[in-house]
Amino acid sequence: MVKRILICLILFSNFIAGRAQISFPDTLNALFTENKINLNGELSEDCWQKAVRIHNFTQRELTEGDPPTERTEVAIVYNTNVMYIGLWAYDDEPEKIIAQKMSRDFNSSTDDNFKIVLSTFNDNRNGYFFITNPNGARSDMLISNEGEGMNRSWNGVWDVATQVTDEGWFAEIQIPFSTLKFKKAENLVWGINFERNIRRKKEQILWQGWSRIFSIMKISQAGRLTGLHNIKAKNKVELKPYVSGGVEKIESENWDGRYKIGGDANFDITPTLKLNLTVNTDFAQVESDRSRINLTRFSLYYPEKRQFFLEAKDLFEMDVGRRSKVFYSRRIGIQDGQEVPIIAGARMFGKQKRTSIGVISIQTKGIDSSLTTNYSVARVRQDIGRQSSVGGIITSKILNGRQNIVYGADFTYSTSKIFNNKNLIVNGSFSQSFTSDSVNNRNSSYSFALSFPNDWIEYDLAVVGIQQNYNPEMGFLRRHNYRMYYTELQFNPRPKFWPFFRNLILKPLDINYYVNELTNQLESIFYELRPFGFVTRSGEVSEFNVQWVYDRLDEPFVLLDDIVIPEGEYWDTRWEIQFETFQGRKLSGELFINQGSFYTGNRLRLSTDANLNINKHWNLSAEWSRNYLNFSQGDFITDEVGGRVAYAFNPKLNTSLFGQWNNEDDEMLLNYRINWIPKIGSDFYFVINQVVDTSGNTFKLTRTTILAKLIWRFAM
């Protein structure tokens, strides 16, 4: 079966001739300077005039392989401790530059922007990702496995200044070497690549690896940065103490004071290994999770938002299926949505030659029914060849003498050289759990997956198994005791005879087939057919899908308080429409409609969201989701509503008001936050959280929290 599929893929892939992805020069030589650089975006210092500039960019979109319509130049200068990247983004119509965002971690998909990927280990896998726009907004992330892992919440210490003139927009980007991890050597060679997006033209240009089958995160296609001699990370020790204080009132009780002191200390054990210690860890400034109504019989997954767990997050991950993980950091310090205080913890992570290493140990306090608990995880991953790796993991949870341990191994084979320079990824994993007071047989998980992710043809194949007694208490499982077979085939042709479309999206095959791992009985099937979908040249996206869903219930489950789905076998047929406008417009939005049978009744799902970008300071958004449920017990409606008003004074001072409500919880959550960055690496927060009970058509304040928090960075 697999052999036949691969043969078909070869035949399909040969319809398109491969193109060389190297654009010469493919090496950028950095210039050492002793000049003081005034970070203002003017690029007026002498060193910028002496530095070598590269300008050989190539279109990825709209017309792959064509030269850019606007000239772009990049140069790099550095001193012993800091690297500066200069950007000359010329534009013949600067008044049409789109720059709507200014806040930290802005949504770059709406704006003209400039992206940098920097692989300091030059390992074809992992790197740092920096983005800025004409307003000087900053966004960054850590990349692992060439974009398979993206830690979007990582916040590095770096700065940028920009200027917009009648020639275009220009940027000076300052990255201290202490922000990066790199091996110690007299002469270094790093992987580097650049991307510029000109939103009004839907034009995307890259320096290297400009094929549509790649992205800038495909680090193996990057160019090379040379000329770095005798650089060093100045800071060996980083201290980030915090102090927070505020008040809280719960219903009719008196105001209660809340004060806390703690912090983190970071030590560079070697240039590539970092030790992080934390004491009395606090996450009070983190925005609340989105509340969701669960109309399934499976667990909901919530992303990690706490900064302490985000750096090197991807290193510790090992998937055992869709939304199923051996290690899920939200198991630490959170129980039933409430914070469990962290007494102290330690982390060590980094890379030694071709080996990535990560260790975490955290101790939490006992609170209410929770006992003081130790959580530990160790992860190792060894690079193999150009893009592949093998790894292992072990997790341990200990409380009151009881222990839960999970150990496992995984591998990834990745290549960009198969079938005429196409991408192929093969990976697999195996893990096993041990719980000291439980049955420890049939306690394993396993997975195997093949992916062929390319421009006009995509194919995926996977087998996943979770045995009956597999119990990763520091992990996340969406469902238990199953074996899943999955395959998907999608075509994205670009018909030149339809100039309105950039590409079509046609999916003849997308099936998830679940059986009981113990009995081999069929449990559920999800099949989706996409006879038509498209992306327009103006940036709109639309899909029409038909879905067939089978689910076997061995016992009843409660869908909502008034709806119980009885045991039995159910076949549902549904149709679905999705439409999304180009986000670069001042007003943009999305629409989702799904209608069809739903267990013993019918369901119509509607959701929509809208974004209004008034200017670079004001950004508004709103979202609404409704389910019309029709059952023999009656008709029911669920509503979820959310909205945000954000104002950015400048890239280092912004404020936002976020609210959400749903009619199942009958509770409104309001979050007001001010974030000021007095210097890069330090933060001040002022937060007001308000919970409002809306049951009985009344508004009752049930919990009010007002908090201020200062985090200050000392580097030594």
How does this structure look, described?
- Helix content is 3%, strand content 56%.
- The protein is mainly β and 716 residues long.
- It has a domain at 21-229: Immunoglobulin-like (Sandwich).
- A hairpin with a 4-residue loop joins strand 31 and strand 32 (541-553).
- Mean pLDDT is 89; it is low at 5-20.
Beta content comes to over 45%
Q: What's the average pLDDT?
A: 89
- Specify the overall morphology: globular
Strand tally: 44
Biggest sheet architecture: 24 strands, antiparallel, barrel
Question: Counting H and I runs of at least 4 residues, what is the number of helices?
Answer: 3
Which CATH-level-2 architecture of the domain at 21-229? Sandwich
Ends: how far apart?
Answer: 59 Å
CA-atom Rg in angstroms: 26 Å
Strand-pairing-aware structural class: mainly beta
Work out the helicity level: under 10%
Classified by CATH, the class of the domain at 21-229 is: Mainly Beta
The stretches of 5 or more residues where confidence is low (pLDDT under 50) are 5-20
CATH topology of the domain at 21-229: Immunoglobulin-like
Summed up, what is this model?
By secondary structure, the protein is mostly beta strands.
Write the layout of secondary structure elements.
Blueprint: H1 2-13, E1 27-29, E2 31-32, H2 46-50, E3 58-61, E4 72-78, E5 82-90, E6 113-119, E7 127-132, E8 138-144, E9 149-151, E10 159-165, E11 168-176, E12 187-198, E13 203-206, E14 223-229, E15 237-250, E16 256-270, E17 273-281, E18 334-335, E19 338-339, E20 342-352, E21 355-364, E22 373-384, E23 388-399, E24 402-417, H3 418-421, E25 422-435, E26 444-453, E27 457-466, E28 482-491, E29 501-504, E30 506-516, E31 522-536, E32 541-553, E33 557-560, E34 563-565, E35 568-580, E36 587-598, E37 601-613, E38 618-631, E39 634-650, E40 653-662, E41 667-676, E42 683-693, E43 700-711, E44 714-715
Parallel strand pairs: 1-14, 2-4
Antiparallel strand pairs: 3-13, 4-5, 5-11, 6-7, 6-12, 7-8, 8-9, 10-11, 12-13, 12-14, 15-16, 15-43, 15-44, 16-17, 17-20, 18-19, 20-21, 21-22, 22-23, 23-24, 24-25, 25-26, 26-27, 27-28, 28-30, 29-31, 30-31, 31-32, 32-35, 33-34, 35-36, 36-37, 37-38, 38-39, 39-40, 40-41, 41-42, 42-43
